[in-house]
Design a protein that fits this description.
The protein folds into 2 domains: about 120 residues, Rossmann fold, CATH 3.40.50; about 100 residues, Rossmann fold (3-Layer(aba) Sandwich). It is globular. The strands form 2 sheets. A 4-stranded parallel β-sheet has the order 2-1-3-4, with helices on both faces. The protein has a 4-stranded parallel β-sheet with strand order 6-5-7-8, sandwiched between helices. The longest helix is centred in the first third of the chain and has 23 residues. It is built from 10 helices and 8 strands.
Length: about 250
């Protein structure tokens, strides 16, 4: 018997406890008959001032990820969405794919993650030369670059915001992000990609696309779109960017 509200699909979504953007973003994307059920990965709001600090943050996320997934699975969801991104870029595409397979085996359902969702979205655009914006430290920016290079894209430009704590990521304002996106634009890039699920970029992405005429792949939009399509939910709707409207 189907769920009374999630009669089309129940998504489990896991995100760090410090993340305040991914939940409202994904609630806004949710079509009728689909419900989101959030599990929090415990992460302290630790200082992140350098590469060592960032590696410690990624390790903290990895240490309690399965606990959060296990709690989510008690509501019998149909599909799992990763509401965090850094870990799912780590060590290149092949290693990330193995990590996804292990997570799907553990959860017992299929999984969408931002890394592979961004790859799928970029493939729809035909873009090969990309600019990336991230909230991370250099060690993670190198991992993101490696992942996209493994996927066959040229990372022509990269702007890392070097946010100094997990909570600080959500405090970056749209006008700041917009300035960075516009500064990255020139004829050498075909598209922008934003990583880091705690950056608020969905509305800004639509604005910059309309202004500059190039696609902006925002990670929360791409991940939720990828999960909907994986579940065979093909609703197309306006208000949240070209992926939901056209694909």
């Amino acid at each position: 018997m189907p769920d009374a509200l999630g009669w089309r699909c129940k998504f489990a979504v896991v995100a760090p406890s410090t993340n305040t953007i991914v939940q409202p973003d994904m609630e806004a994307f949710r079509p009728e008959g689909v419900t989101n059920h959030f599990g929090r990965i415990y992460v302290p709001n630790m200082p992140v001032h350098n590469d060592d600090d960032f590696v410690a943050l990624v390790e903290a996320i990895g240490a309690t990820l399965n606990d959060a997934v296990e709690r989510c699975m008690t509501c019998a969801p149909d599909y799992l969405i990763m509401g965090m991104s850094a870990l799912m870029f780590w060590d290149g595409r092949a290693a990330s794919e193995r990590r996804m397979e292990e997570l799907a085996d553990f959860a017992g359902v299929r999984v969408s993650a931002g890394s592979f969702a961004c790859e799928a979205a970029l493939n729809l655009t035909g873009a090969k030369r990309i600019a990336v914006i991230s909230p991370y430290q250099p060690v993670s920016d190198r991992e993101v670059t490696r992942f996209f290079q493994d996927c066959g894209f040229e990372v022509r430009k990269f702007h890392g915001l070097r946010c100094d704590s997990p909570v600080a990521i959500a405090q970056v304002q749209p006008e700041t992000l917009g300035g960075h996106l516009r500064a990255l634009d020139d004829d050498s890039i075909d598209a922008w990609v934003q990583v880091g699920t705690n950056l608020s970029m969905v509305a800004l992405g639509r604005e910059v696309e309309a202004e500059l005429g190039k696609p902006v792949i925002t990670i929360n939009s791409a991940t939720y779109w990828h999960a909907l399509r994986a579940m065979g939910i093909d609703d197309q709707f306006d208000g949240h960017g070209w992926l939901f409207k056209d694909h």
